[in-house]
Design goal:
The protein has 492 residues and is mainly alpha-helical. It folds into 2 domains: 219 residues, Growth Hormone, Chain: A (Up-down Bundle), CATH 1.20.1250.20; 226 residues, Growth Hormone, Chain: A. 75% of the residues lie in helices and 1% in strands. The protein is built from 17 helices and 2 strands. It has a two-stranded antiparallel sheet with strand order 1-2. α10 runs antiparallel to α15. The longest helix is centred in the first third of the chain and has 30 residues. The two termini are 37 Å apart. Belongs to the major facilitator superfamily. Proton-dependent oligopeptide transporter (POT/PTR) (TC 2.A.17) family. Keywords: Cell membrane, Membrane, Transmembrane, Transmembrane helix, Transport. GO terms for molecular function: dipeptide transmembrane transporter activity; peptide:proton symporter activity; tripeptide transmembrane transporter activity.
């Protein structure tokens, strides 16, 4: 398809109809709401399903392996976004890629909804990883297509869209978690599948009317020859993977180690290519050098934040008193705390930065505050851990831990993608979205190895060491922030 200019896209989209925004925002808001509902709902109970004994409806993995699988799954989701972006740019366009991704996700949840073996679980994970990689990086891109770059509604539109993400993440653990833990895991996974189905229905029924030609552009179409070559390559890799699994060459532990290596190696390769490229000038390489410590800081932050769905989820299930003020709690409900706090505090932070204006902290300082708060969220957990593994602790400890990491997230995450695009060399601008996603992929690849220590060393040492490393790294980043700022060459 020939390239479509932004003016033509804007003309095809009804510009009113959803709180003063383009009507297409309705379509994308509810598509993403239901996708996040299905994703976070499934994730809220997946860890418990993995390590629950088979007689009780689980798969019976040991807890260390279950945590590692969760981390590797998260890492692969973010790695697959690179493929999703590539397919959108070269084959399908963003809107079609979003729809195809939703189909993969739905069938992945459907597979989980049926009682099955570990093999069925791996198939479902493959479907969800592929589907999320197709959908996640592209749905926000379609949101951008609804507005001109000068449209004053643009930032507000993304804020509304972001609210849909967090509302889906807030409700999912409460509904899917309750169904999964109180009744049956597969009933919970079925609810997640229904959520994605609803998202697909909304998208399919309203796409033509609300989105017009937004997301239909294929900016760099793949040639027929390249398409055939790519297809053959994918088939060969798939066959090789099946043979490796069937022959026992690729075991779950080897796969975990392989993904962990890739999670670290891929970002390193990205940086080497950009630093050695003749397409990047001296100023761009200076900015790239400034980005390296920010990238490392983001990896540290996500390494802690993502343990909310693994280590803290395990802690909630086994070490926490699941009652508060006479209310019976489900351990999966704690996964709603992150989006709840974001919904509450995101507007406050947005107001604060606006109020401070030019006096607000620089990007490196915001990053340092973010990882210091993340470190404190783990330091806090040292105190309940001191009570011993046999004691059940107050759920308020977990509430406080999640609150601190969310405050850190609001300092680091909103500016992370923005600064990534600003500091990347122009020749590599199309790959900048992938770079930011890779901070999370690398973090979870590291977690797959580190989280296995949780059951092997005292909890106080685990939480204390990781928390202290994060705080020290934040302090170092704060000290060198003036140097980083100078290297950014005018980028704020």
């Amino acid at each position: 398809m020939a390239s479509i200019d932004n003016e033509s896209i804007i003309k095809s989209v009804p510009q009113k109809g959803f709180f003063g925004h383009p009507r297409g925002l309705f379509t994308l808001f509810f598509t993403e709401f239901w996708e996040r509902f299905s994703y976070y709902g499934m994730r809220a109970i997946l860890l418990y399903y993995l390590y629950t004994e088979t007689v009780n409806g689980g798969l019976g993995f040991d807890k260390g392996t279950a945590v590692a699988i969760m981390s590797i799954y998260g890492s692969l989701v973010y790695m697959s976004s690179i493929i999703g972006g590539w397919l959108a740019d070269r084959v399908f366009g963003t809107a079609n890629t979003v729809f195809y991704g939703g189909i993969f996700i739905m069938f992945g949840h459907v597979a989980l909804a049926y009682p099955g073996s570990a093999t069925a679980f791996y198939i479902s994970m493959a479907l969800i990883i592929i589907g999320t990689g197709l959908l996640k990086p592209n749905v926000s891109s379609v949101v951008g297509d609804l507005y001109t770059k000068e449209d004053p509604r643009r930032d507000s539109g993304f804020s509304i869209f972001y609210m849909g993400i967090n509302l889906g993440g807030l409700l999912a653990p409460l509904i899917v978690g309750t169904l999964g833990q109180k009744y049956n895991y597969h009933l919970g996974f079925g609810a997640a599948a229904v959520g994605m189905l609803l998202g697909l229905i909304v998208f399919a029924l309203t796409r033509k009317k609300n989105l017009g030609i937004a997301g239909s552009n294929v900016p760099n179409p793949l040639s027929k020859k390249s398409a055939i070559g790519t297809g053959i390559g994918v088939i060969i890799v798939a066959i090789a993977a099946i043979i490796a699994v069937q022959t026992g060459v690729l075991t779950i532990n080897r796969f975990i180690n392989l993904v962990s290596i890739l999670g670290i190696l891929i970002p390193i390769v990205y940086f080497i290519i950009m630093f050695t490229s003749k397409k990047a000038d001296k100023t761009e390489k200076s900015r790239l050098a400034a980005y390296v410590p920010l990238f490392i800081a983001a990896v540290m932050f996500w390494a802690i934040q993502e343990q909310g769905a693994t280590i803290l989820a395990l802690y909630a299930d086994e070490r926490t008193r699941l009652s508060l003020g006479g209310l019976e709690l489900q351990s999966s409900w704690f996964q709603s705390l992150n989006p709840l706090f974001i919904v509450i505090f995101a507007p406050i932070f947005a107001w604060l930065w606006m109020k401070l204006g030019k006096r607000q902290p620089s990007t490196p300082v915001k990053f340092s505050i973010g990882i210091i708060l993340a470190g404190l969220s783990f330091i806090i957990m040292v105190f309940p851990a001191m009570q011993g593994k046999e004691a059940l602790v107050s759920p308020l400890w977990l509430v406080l831990s999640f609150l601190l990491v969310v405050l850190g997230e609001l300092c680091l995450s909103p500016v992370g993608l923005s600064v990534t695009t600003k500091l990347a060399p122009a020749a590599f601008s199309a790959q900048t979205m992938s770079m930011w996603f890779l901070t999370n992929a690398a973090a979870q690849a590291i977690n797959a190895q580190v989280a296995g220590l949780f059951d092997k060393i005292p909890e106080t040492i685990y939480f204390g060491t990781i928390g202290l490393i994060s705080i020290v790294l934040g302090g170092i980043l704060l000290l060198i922030s003036p140097i980083i700022k100078r290297a950014m060459k005018g980028v704020l």
